[in-house]
Design goal:
By secondary structure, the chain is an alpha+beta fold. It has helices spanning about 25-40, 65-70, 75-90, 155-170, 225-240, and strands at about 1-5, 65, 95-100, 110-120, 125-135, 185-195, 200, 210-215, 245, 250-255.
Amino acid sequence: GLCACALLVASTWCPQPSALFSSSQCALRGAVNLFHAANTTFDGTLNNLHHMALAVGKENNEIYTFREMLKQEDSTEFIKAMQKEADDHEQRSHWEITLRSDIPKGTKTIMAIWSFERKRFPDGSLNKHKARLCAHGGMQQWGINYWETYAPVVNWISVRFLLILAQLLGLETQAIDFVLAFPQADLDVPVFMELPAGMIVNGHDHDSSKYVLRLRKSLYGLKQASANWHEMLKKGLILRGFKESLADPCVFSGTT
């Protein structure tokens, strides 16, 4: 498995970021969040960006690259999140560690990209440190490591219609959040990815460069990830007796 080696260069002392936002900034962020929530619930025709959001300066950006993350005072918390992300992928067998010498001759690997973020509640208080590992889809080659990329997106008219119908008929509605959704779908073609920055193969501290990751699932960032996820979800729903709508390919109906 993979383990984080960035701890060697990051501080082990990790204070919580308690003064990143003033009380007025927290209130502003909360107001903007409520505005977007109301806009989504209403009809989406209001201005997409609230004018008060301009009061939030660049210094309040909390999304970092791997190099930028290492410069943060709470980098140790990000590294813990990085290790959790890698463990989640390995426990679900989203990839397998492969010797570089074993990949087909002439095969080009793609890079792995880290994205780090401090997730916050609407009032600005810290929720958690998040690390997201993505594949560099821009390095993929059509016809070699990806083909189909199109995936339909549900129409908001369909969503509103179903919610109104449920309200009129007294039906229960629920929302489901899929954890690591895209990686649940199998890849249709082989994709080989370099080891993520800051990670080494356990027991091979000095020769991890000999290894690459053969992706078995559709990692975020791959060009075909959306198409593979939709195809898997569609097949799963049809197998359970649901039928695809002719008006909206993202709407399925069925009986229990």
